[in-house]
C-alpha cells in the first residue's frame, strides 16, 4: 500500500551531530522556541515565576517541574488549537530553591508543599503560532493536577482492603498522582499517564513485619528508612509505619479527561500495579480496546490489557465516559518472548545469530480477568495490586527496563523501547536471551512485534529487534540491517512516537556514549529501515521526553536540564541563559517555510 519512497518522507533533514552544547540544537532549516516551562502561569491569577520567592500557592497555578510525557488533544477538526497535556514526573529540589534556603535533610513544610504542587500534570490550551510552532493561549480548559487532586480508584480492585487507609475507609478515593512518566492520548481524546517510580516517596517499609506484606513492599522497592524528600514529616500517609496501604494507591495508570476541566481523574486498577512507564491504546479487530504498558525496572515485564466491552467512536462526553469505563473490565496479560535461534548462538555479546536476526515468537499469558485469577495462589485482587509478584510466577520474560510502548498507526506493529540494563548477565542475575541479547546492556534496544493476524486481541505474536543501540562503529550494535556507516549513534531509547508516515521517532535518556540526549527518527519499512537520524539534541544534563510529531510541529519535553548540578552550581543555564537557573520546558520545533509560514515536516 505504501511505495518505498513514501516512508522516507518525514525524515528528510540533515542529522544533527552528537554534541555537548547547553542548547536545543535542531537541523539546518528548522526553528525552535520554548512553549512553556517550569513556573510559567497555567491558571488564572498565577503569579509570574520568581525563583527566589516561590510559594506552594503560586506553584499550584503554574506549570510543574520536570515535564515528561506530552500529548496533544485537538480542540477543532483542523487541529490548529489543542489541549497540551503534560506529565510532571518528579521534583529536583536542589535546583528549585536558592542553595542557602534548601537543606535536603531538613526541608521546610512550605518547600515540601511546593514539591507537592510541582508534581502531577498540566493541561494548557495551545494554538499554532503564525510563524510556526505552538504558543500558549488563555483557555478555559487549563488545569493543574497535583498531589492534592482527588482521584477515583476504579476497576476490579477498587474498594479492596489493601487500598483502604484511615483517611479513605472506602478504598476508592485517592489524593494525587506522582512520578507520572510517559503516557498516551486515547482514541477518545483522554490521556493515560503512568505512575512510575512511586516507591521513592514513601518511608519506613521496615516497620512492616508480616513476611507476606514485607515481601510485597520489597518487590516494589519501598524504602526501609526515611524517604529522600522527607514528605513523611508533613503528612503521615507517606509513612508506611502509620499508613501501610497508602503506597498501594500509587503505581497505577491514571486517566484524565482534559475536555472537561471539572472531571475527576481515574486510577484504573484493571491495568495492574507496577512502575508504569506509559500506556498506549490499540483498537482490536472486533472493536475492543487493548492497552500496552511496560514496567520500567531491570528484569521487569511488558503487559497488555484487553477490554471486554467495545469502543464507541467519537469524542462526545457520552463516548468518552463509555470508553473510559472499558478500562475497568477486561483481561490483564504479561508477555513471554521466545527466541528462534539456538541458545548457544546468544552469547551475550550482541553478535547476531546465524539466522541474521534477534527474533522469535511470543505469547500473552493471562493473569486475571474481572474477578477471576489465572495465577495459582493469587486472588484476582492480589493480581491487580501486587502484579509483579503474580507475573513472577508464570514464566514471563524479564526485560531490559521496558520504557515506552506504542502501536504504529501505519503498519500496525507495536514498538517498545528497552532502555538499558547494566545488570544483565551479572552474578546471580539472568543472562542474555534473544530478546535481551547483550550482557551488561548499557545502550538499550528497540523491539517490534506483530500480533497474530494483526489483531491486538491475539494471545500470540512474532517479534524482532529493530535496533540494538550504541555506537554504530561497535560490533555489538544493529540498525535494522541498514549500513552502519550511515546512521546516527543512539543510546538509551526511552520514549517513542510516530509521524504520519509511520516513521518511528525515539527520544533518549542517559546517553552512555558521552554526548547529550536527543530525539531521533528512523524508518521502519522499505530500503531505509533502520536508518537512524538524529533530529535534535537537548541541553547539558537533560533527558529528551514526550515527543509529539505532527505534519508541522515537533514537540519535545526537555526534562531535568543540569541534572548533576544544583542551584549553587547549575551546570546548565537553559533556556534563559546568562547565570540563570535551568528550567525544564516544552520546546516546539518547526521547518522554516516560505512567506513566513512553517513548512511541512518531511517535505
Ligand atoms: Fe521515568 Fe522510565 O522513565
Ligand atoms: Ca533469530
Ligand atoms: Ca521515561
Ligand atoms: Ca527515563
UniProtKB/TrEMBL annotation:
SUPFAM superfamilies xrefs: Calcium-dependent phosphotriesterase (SSF63829)
PROSITE patterns: TAT (PS51318)
Region (Disordered): 561-603
Basic residues compositional bias, start-end: 591-603
Name of a matching Pfam family: PhoX
Name of the protein: Putative phosphatase
Amino acid at each position: 500500500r505504501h511505495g518505498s519512497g513514501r516512508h522516507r518522507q518525514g525524515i528528510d533533514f540533515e542529522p544533527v551531530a552528537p554534541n555537548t552544547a547547553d542548547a536545543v540544537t535542531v537541523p539546518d532549516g528548522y526553528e525552535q522556541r520554548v512553549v512553556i516551562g517550569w513556573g510559567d502561569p497555567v491558571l488564572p491569577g498565577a503569579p509570574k515565576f520568581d525563583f527566589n520567592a516561590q510559594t506552594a500557592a503560586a506553584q499550584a497555578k503554574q506549570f510543574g517541574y520536570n515535564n515528561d510525557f506530552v500529548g496533544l488533544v485537538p480542540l477543532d477538526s483542523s487541529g490548529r488549537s489543542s489541549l497540551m497535556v503534560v506529565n510532571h514526573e518528579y521534583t529536583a529540589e536542589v535546583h528549585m530553591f536558592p542553595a542557602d534556603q534548601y537543606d535536603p535533610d531538613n526541608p521546610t513544610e512550605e518547600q515540601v508543599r511546593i514539591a507537592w504542587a510541582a508534581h502531577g500534570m498540566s493541561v494548557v490550551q495551545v494554538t499554532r503560532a503564525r510563524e510556526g510552532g505552538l504558543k500558549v493561549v488563555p483557555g478555559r480548559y487549563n488545569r493543574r493536577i497535583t498531589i492534592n487532586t482527588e482521584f477515583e480508584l476504579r476497576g476490579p480492585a477498587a474498594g479492596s482492603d489493601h487500598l483502604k487507609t484511615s483517611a479513605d475507609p472506602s478504598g476508592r478515593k485517592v489524593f494525587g498522582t506522582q512520578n507520572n512518566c510517559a503516557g498516551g492520548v486515547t482514541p477518545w481524546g483522554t490521556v493515560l499517564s503512568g505512575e512510575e517510580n512511586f516507591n521513592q516517596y514513601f518511608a519506613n517499609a521496615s516497620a512492616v513485619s508480616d513476611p507476606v506484606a514485607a515481601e510485597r513492599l520489597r518487590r516494589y522497592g519501598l524504602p526501609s528508612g526515611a524517604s529522600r524528600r522527607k514528605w513523611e514529616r508533613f503528612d503521615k500517609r507517606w509513612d508506611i509505619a502509620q499508613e501501610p496501604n497508602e503506597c498501594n494507591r500509587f503505581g497505577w495508570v491514571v486517566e484524565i479527561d482534559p475536555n472537561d476541566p471539572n472531571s475527576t481523574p481515574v486510577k484504573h486498577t484493571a491495568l495492574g500495579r507496577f512502575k508504569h512507564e506509559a500506556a498506549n491504546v490499540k483498537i482490536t479487530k472486533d472493536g475492543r480496546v487493548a492497552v500496552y504498558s511496560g514496567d520500567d525496572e531491570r528484569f521487569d515485564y511488558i503487559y497488555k490489557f484487553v477490554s471486554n466491552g467495545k469502543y464507541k467512536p467519537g469524542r462526545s462526553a457520552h463516548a468518552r465516559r463509555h470508553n473510559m469505563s472499558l478500562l475497568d473490565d477486561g483481561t490483564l496479560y504479561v508477555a513471554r518472548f521466545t527466541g528462534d535461534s539456538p541458545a548457544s548462538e546468544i552469547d551475550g555479546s550482541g553478535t547476531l545469530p546465524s539466522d541474521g536476526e534477534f527474533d522469535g515468537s511470543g505469547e500473552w499469558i493471562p493473569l486475571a480477568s474481572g474477578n477471576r485469577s489465572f495465577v495459582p495462589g493469587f486472588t484476582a485482587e492480589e493480581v491487580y495490586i501486587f502484579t509483579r509478584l503474580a507475573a513472577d510466577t508464570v514464566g514471563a520474560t524479564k526485560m531490559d527496563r521496558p520504557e515506552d510502548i506504542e502501536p504504529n498507526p501505519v503498519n500496525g506493529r507495536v514498538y517498545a523501547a528497552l532502555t538499558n540494563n547494566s545488570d544483565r548477565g551479572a552474578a546471580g542475575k539472568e543472562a542474555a536471551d534473544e530478546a535481551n541479547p547483550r550482557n551488561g546492556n548499557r545502550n538499550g534496544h528497540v523491539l517490534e512485534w506483530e500480533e497474530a493476524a494483526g489483531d491486538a486481541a491475539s494471545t500470540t505474536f512474532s517479534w524482532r529487534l529493530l535496533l540494538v543501540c550504541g555506537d554504530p562503529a561497535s560490533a555489538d550494535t544493529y540498525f535494522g540491517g541498514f549500513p552502519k556507516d550511515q546512521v546516527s549513534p543512539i543510546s538509551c531509547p526511552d520514549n517513542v512516537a510516530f509521524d504520519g508516515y509511520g516513521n518511528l521517532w525515539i527520544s533518549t535518556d542517559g546517553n552512555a556514549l558521552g554526548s547529550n540526549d536527543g530525539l531521533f527518527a528512523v524508518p521502519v519499512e522499505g530500503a531505509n529501515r533502520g536508518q537512524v537520524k538524529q533530529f535534535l539534541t537537548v541541553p547539558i544534563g537533560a533527558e529528551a521526553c514526550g515527543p509529539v510529531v505532527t505534519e508541522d510541529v515537533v514537540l519535545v519535553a526537555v526534562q531535568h536540564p543540569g541534572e548533576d548540578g544544583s542551584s549553587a552550581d547549575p551546570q546548565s543555564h537553559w533556556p534563559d541563559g546568562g547565570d540563570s537557573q535551568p528550567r525544564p520546558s516544552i520546546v516546539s520545533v518547526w521547518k522554516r517555510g516560505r512567506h513566513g509560514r512553517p513548512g511541512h515536516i518531511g517535505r
